[in-house]
Amino acid sequence: MHMADALLAPQVAATMYAASGVVVGISAKALRNDEKKEKLPVMAVTAALVFAGQMINYTIPGTGSSGHLCGGMLLSALLGPQAGFLSMVVILAIQCLFFADGGLLALGANCWNMAFYGCFIGYYLIWKPIMHSHLCAEKKNTDRIKIALASILGCVLTLQMGAFSVVLETSASGITELPFAAFVGIMLPIHLAIGLVEGLITAAVLLFVYEARPELLTGLSGGAEKTKSRCSLKTTIAILAAAVVIVGGGLSLFASGNPDGLEWSMFGNSEAGYRENMGLDEENYGVSSEAARVSGEIQEKTAFLPDYAFRGSDSTAGTSVSGLVGSAIVAGAAVLMCVAGGFFRKKRRSCKSTE
Predict the structure, then answer these.
(1) pLDDT digits (tens, 9 = 90+) for 199-208
(2) With contact defined as beta carbons under 8 Å apart, do 214 and 220 qualify?
(3) Strand partners, 59
(4) Are 207 and 220 a contacting pair, CB within 8 Å?
């Protein structure tokens, strides 16, 4: 659901930058006051895992479309909504600048559509209420059931909200080739299917963490937090880091070649025998603006692995390298963000006050 610059008028793009910027500021302030030291390595490895996971497009059978992990629900369940949102912003910014995935002018909109809903709406409206509820209290595996249910419902709901926001933003940009009702009628159903798959993936990862190190999950009820850990923190992080390498460096080679939900909605996939949907011309569509032109020129200079491949090469090694290098950059950026923001500032003050 990474939007291209051509889908947004400059004034709409600026509005979305402002909205996402406000949330970044609020989240950064909350992160500075966080005292959980173990969140730093978890933030680095889970952000890298989401980056790697987003490289794997999974086919939606019978449609000619594909989807990929968004990651907001996963990160907010592990890090909390504020740290999760900032991690998503880092991921989206690196994808945009270094891999030309999503437009630079559209980055604010992409952060809102793909990060805000999953991290804040998904957490406060779905994840936390379900985890604190008495749902399935009589069941033996009540915590596992609630984790799976919250993951699936959260991913479905927030992806629907993100898809609907894409339609609103394109409509506000005056793209007349995209009739509002028709675009909604295509975008929401395909992202419902994509959200269901993402929910299952999210549930699988969170259930692993619950079994290995349950205290890493946020928003759990008191009883769940007392569940005995089966792995040390270092072991859990090592397993997740290994998953990053396997997914980013290996499984990414088997990603579906079908267009993702947004591209499929706009252009269809008639070459593979599927519907044309909106039937837009991939070479000439949307809004042309000076801001989009300048943004494109900047991306042309910064993207050293455009489209997750070596520039001017069809070698599959470019995909593996992109997965590994991108994951490492994301992990490093997450650590730098925490250090630069004074992540341990309050912790250090607290330590000094007890001396």
Answers:
(1) 999 999 999 9
(2) yes
(3) 66
(4) no
